[in-house]
Give the backbone structure.
Amino acid sequence: MNENFGSFLKRKREERGYTLVQLADASGISIAQLSRLENGLRDTPKPETVKKLAHALEVPLVEMMVLAGYWDQEELLQPIEEDKVKEGSATYNSKDPDPIADSEPYQDIPIEDLVQYSLSYNGHQLTEEQKKHLTKILLAAAELLEKK
């Protein structure tokens, strides 16, 4: 494919009969960002942006991820090796080191002490209030487990 992401985006938008405003509405991406992408003023959109655009334009995500430079087309065309298995969204090779076995031993932290640590969930750092709430939930769950 010799086409860059911006020209591909514009071509697909026009094929669908969308204006920038309509694509912005369909994808949840601002008109300004769409314009920057189409005109090559923004090199690589974030993967989440690519996903939204693929959905809105009804274009295969694989094709858009390749054009955006996240996936390698040649690599995607290679046959799957038998010693690799799909685990979640990542490829796991049985010859790879075991991330659990090769890591430091787990540290035992009392539930009550969790509020002293920096905690995150899905890439977002928990606030003090959220950490306190989580602590209460874990203590209640621990109590239920002890009763069994």
Q: What stands out?
A: Helices lie at 5-15, 20-27, 31-38, 47-57, 61-68, 73-76, 128-147.
